[in-house]
Amino acid sequence: MIRTLRAALAAAILIVTPAFAHNGVTHLGAINISLPFTRATLPNAPVGGGFLTIENEGPEADRLISASSPASDVVQIHEMAMEGDVMKMRQLADGLELPAGETVVLAPGGYHLMFMGLKRAFVEGETVPVTLVFEKAGTVELALPVLDAAADEAPAGEHAH
Amino acid sequence: MAGIRSLRIGLWIVVAVVALAAGGGALFLRQGPADGFGKGTYSLVDQNGKAVDQALFAGHPSALFFGFTHCPEVCPTTMAEMSGWFEALGEDGKDLRAYFVSIDPERDTPDILGDYVSWVSDRITGVTGTPEEIDKIAKAWGVYYKRVPLEGGDYTMDHTASVFLLDAAGEFQGTIAYREDQATALGKLRNLLGKS
Ligand SMILES: [Cu+2]
After folding, report:
1. Which residues contact A69 (CB under 8 A, 6 or more apart)?
2. DSSP annotation of A18
3. Which end of chain B is more exposed for a tag (fewer CB within 10 A), N or C?
4. Is the pTM of this model over 0.80?
């Protein structure tokens, strides 16, 4: 009973900051999220990457601590880097730091959301829902448009502001 | 007398050294191509379950890539780019074959690999095998790969992301770097096709 109450309370705290979208930008407190996208996946590919731009216009640092989606078993926060001609990928176990007043870009070749254990392939033209949890700003739900398999960025016109 | 004798011995030593050097050099030259970059012997299996070995790369120019289907980015991107190369080359590229060798053979079965590469072109062949044999082909090509654990018992793979270009004799001719622009990549492929 107490546990349920506590969970309900926690949930209530998490949704105190309502998110709203405007011109392709999702606002959640001091956090502005723009240019979300993912890529169509190849047959049998069990994973997919999620990309977006996060601006923290607040006076203090925040942190993207977790993500989840009904489209996959788990969503992790990863960093990818090329070292010479070797691709290396690491999980950011403590999440992604969002310094005050700065913009952090999740893009091919760098930070990304990693959808693991896809329920089915990501199909170009569809959208993939994802829930992001920020340490301070709270929780927000987004829809990532699925672009082609090698897309580098979301289409122009959805610029951060 | 003693002077001439030591001179003679000295000369014989010089002759011996020169002969050894020449012989060694010849041996080195002979072994060079046979043990060169990309050379090795291995028994693998293609996406249809057919046994394949080093002879796979003989008789046609090839583009060779090492990757895994659980790859979030480098592998699908490279596959998408390869499909663009085949399309842009059109009839000119009819002799070109491409190979996707899995560096994660425990998860990439022939079936899984076959569907994965089929998306690119019917001229790309998925190759997998036992971890021991995959290690042999990766070593032959100087390919780095390493299993990296993820939360929840899962894992990902670090791996070399370049595409190797081979002529019709199976000899290494160069690489296309990850995300090299299409014009440069096509230039390299046309050059390879011209030589083959
Ligand atoms: Cu990869």
Report:
1. A75, A115, A128, A129, A130, A131
2. -
3. N
4. no
Using H for helix, E for strand and C for coil, what is the string for B80-97? HHHHHHHHHHHHHHCCCE
- Rounded to a whole number, what is the distance in Å from the CA of A85 to chain B's nearest CA? 6
Q: What is the token pair recorded at A21?
A: 């979208």
Contact state of B73 with A80 under an 8 Å Cβ cutoff: yes
Q: pLDDT higher for A151 or B4?
A: A151
d(CA B166, CA B74) in angstroms, rounded, equals: 21
A129: left (phi over 0), alpha (psi -120 to 50) or beta: beta
CA distances from B10 to B1, B23, B70, B189 (A): 14, 20, 66, 55
Give me ligand 1 centre to Cα B73, in Å.
6
Of A31, A12, A13, A67, the residue nearest A160 (C-alpha): A31
Among the partner residues A49, A88, A150, nearest to B72 by beta-carbon distance: A49
What's chain B's average pLDDT? 86
Helix (H) or strand (E) holding B18: helix B2-34
Please name the helix (run of DSSP H) or strand (run of DSSP E) that holds residue A62, with its range, or none.
strand A62-68
Cα B145 to Cα A88: distance, rounded to the nearest angstrom: 9
Contacts of A45 in chain B (CB under 8 A): 69-71, 76, 116
Cβ separation of B76 and A90 shorter than 8 Å? no
Q: pLDDT tens digit string along A106-127?
A: 999 899 999 999 999 999 999 9
